[in-house]
Amino acid sequence: MSAPDARIRVMFALQLPQLVASVTAPRPGAQCARATHGFEKKKDRARTFSEDWEAVLNLAGDLSGVPADDALEVVWEDNEPHSESELMDALTKQRSLGVPLATIWAEMGYSPEMITTMQDEFAKESAAAAAAQAAAFGVDVPTA
């Protein structure tokens, strides 16, 4: 018998429920609630400092001879923990609202190069499926 198991058995034998409560694992929601405060603090700081960082990057560009870019935007990484299920649910809802696939793929973490490759493959697959469907109905589709 391991040491923690022995201690728990002794506590039960002595009928010390207040000590047993401190040994048991916390509820999953309690841990999530404690962690939420830290993430809210990070989000607040990101909102506060985004404009300042954009100004710093434009200044650095000016000093190095690169012209300022008004379209420059600081994008902060989402540090809040999400399950894969939550992420996929959110992205599915965004897609149903008309968000482009490239944007969804970027939120999934794909690089711009991978997104371009996937868009090319998607276009080829769509063209092949359309040609197959047209052929099934006896329609001749010219290929490029």
Structural commentary:
The chain has 144 residues and is mainly α. The chain folds into 2 domains: 9-81, no CATH class; 82-137, no CATH class. The chain has helices at residues 3-14, 17-23, 28-63, 84-96, 101-107, 112-136. The radius of gyration is 27 Å and the shape is flat. The N and C termini lie far apart (73 Å). Residues 14-23 have low confidence and may be disordered.
Overall residue-averaged pLDDT value: 76
Helix content: 55-70%
Q: What does the main sheet amount to?
A: none
Give the topology string: H per helix, E per strand. HHHHHH
Estimated structural class: mainly alpha
Task: Name some characteristics of this structure.
6 helices, single chain, 2 domains, 144 residues
List the helices and strands and how they pair.
Blueprint lengths: L2 H12 L2 H7 L4 H36 L20 H13 L4 H7 L4 H25 L8
Short description:
This protein has 144 residues and is mainly alpha-helical. The chain has helices at 3-14, 17-23, 28-63, 84-96, 101-107, 112-136. It folds into two domains: 9-81, no CATH class; 82-137, no CATH class.
